[in-house]
UniProtKB/TrEMBL annotation:
One of its GO terms (cellular component) is extracellular space. Residues 169-266 form the Ig-like domain. SMART domains: IG, IGc2, KAZAL. It comes from Microcaecilia unicolor. It is found in: Secreted. CDD domains: KAZAL_FS. This is Kazal-type serine protease inhibitor domain-containing protein 1.
Length: 301
């Protein structure tokens, strides 16, 4: 008779269930989106069970750990280490948020302090040197390289050498086709990645002459950036005339090769614009003129 006991018949039992839910719900109701918190609370709960016996054979095998593995709070089982940029325990334990992986260190983010926020400890890569991988790709530093290694273990990725892979230039952001009315200023941009650094040249279709030549209403500019190992070139034509119409080429060259990207300039007189009406396409997004995107301005070369 006592084996089956629905809670409306057994207030005592019901009450203890109720109590358990009161205690556990706040933990479950915490932002489940945040893995850190989830793992943090899990650690605290496991801590509660204390770390007496360690049976490594009973440990689950952590999978897909992009930053490698570290020992858990009890120094028993392996678990995934935290990635670059993830929040961590400043005292290098994995008591709550967890431990950073290889080549990473838990540091306070002083940027937060500057922005008036409470600084958060996060995993920071100890190296900022790019490496060239056996995949022929430049990885921005060893921590990003290790993420690629762990993401594709079957690729047997190795470091070929420090520094970026030597390569022919790649045009990351080509110049876009432009149209405008006579008398307006137009500007083409060309963003290139290359190592060694590329030289950029501008030419107009049908002429061998390097721009700007001796034409005072044309000017060119180059600057390193916006990212490391990149260079960006601009071609500006002031007060465009109909004779400026044509195709413009951005040539990027280094010792390993040359790449070219082409864009056209269409120049309309106000009359022509009136006739064509408003059917013309809107100009596409232009390259940044003052690169606010750039984070570390002195870091280019
Ligand atoms: C990686 O190494 C393993 C064992 O050495 C080999 O069987 C496998 O074919 C290699 N994979 C690649 C992509 O080279
Ligand atoms: C024409 O040029 C002016 C000045 O450079 C610019 O503000 C305008 O957006 C351009 N118009 C088109 C359609 O590209
Ligand atoms: C455009 O056309 C309208 C009438 O069709 C005319 O009133 C206006 O002056 C024209 N504008 C220009 C710049 O030619």
């Amino acid at each position: 008779m006592q084996t089956f006991c629905p809670h409306w018949l057994c207030p005592g039992l019901f009450f203890s269930f109720y109590l358990i839910w009161i205690l556990i719900l706040p933990l479950l109701a915490l932002p489940s989106a945040s893995d850190y918190l989830h793992r943090g609370w899990q650690r605290l709960l496991e801590e509660g069970e204390s770390c007496t016996d360690c049976s490594p054979e009973e440990c689950p095998t952590p999978r897909g750990c992009l930053a490698g593995v570290v020992k858990d709070t009890c120094d028993c089982c392996f678990e995934c280490a935290n990635l670059e940029g993830q929040i961590c325990d400043l005292d290098n334990t994995n008591y709550f948020y967890g431990k950073c992986g290889d080549n990473l260190e838990c540091q306070l983010d002083m940027e937060d302090l500057r922005h008036g926020e409470v600084p958060e400890p996060q995993c920071v890569c100890l190296s900022s040197t790019a490496v060239c991988g056996s995949d022929g790709k430049t990885h921005s530093q060893i921590c990003k390289f290790m993420e690629a290694v762990n993401a594709h273990p079957e690729a047997n990725l190795t470091v070929i050498h420090e520094g970026p892979c030597e390569s022919a230039p790649q045009i990351l952001s080509p110049p876009y086709d432009i149209w405008n009315i006579t008398g307006q200023d137009v500007i083409f941009g060309c963003e290139v990645f290359a190592y060694p650094m590329a030289f950029i040249e501008w030419r107009k279709d049908g002429t061998d002459m390097l721009l700007p030549g001796d034409d005072p209403h044309i000017s060119v500019q180059f600057r390193g950036g916006p990212q490391k190992y990149e260079v960006t070139g601009w071609l500006q034509i002031q007060e465009v005339r109909t004779t400026d119409e044509g195709d413009y080429h951005c040539f990027a060259r280094n010792t390993f090769g040359e790449t070219v990207a082409t864009a056209s300039l269409t120049v309309l007189t106000p009359d022509q614009l009136n006739m064509t009406g408003l059917l013309l396409p809107k100009p596409r997004h232009q390259l940044f003129e003052d690169d606010e995107e750039s984070e570390d301005g002195d870091d280019y070369y």
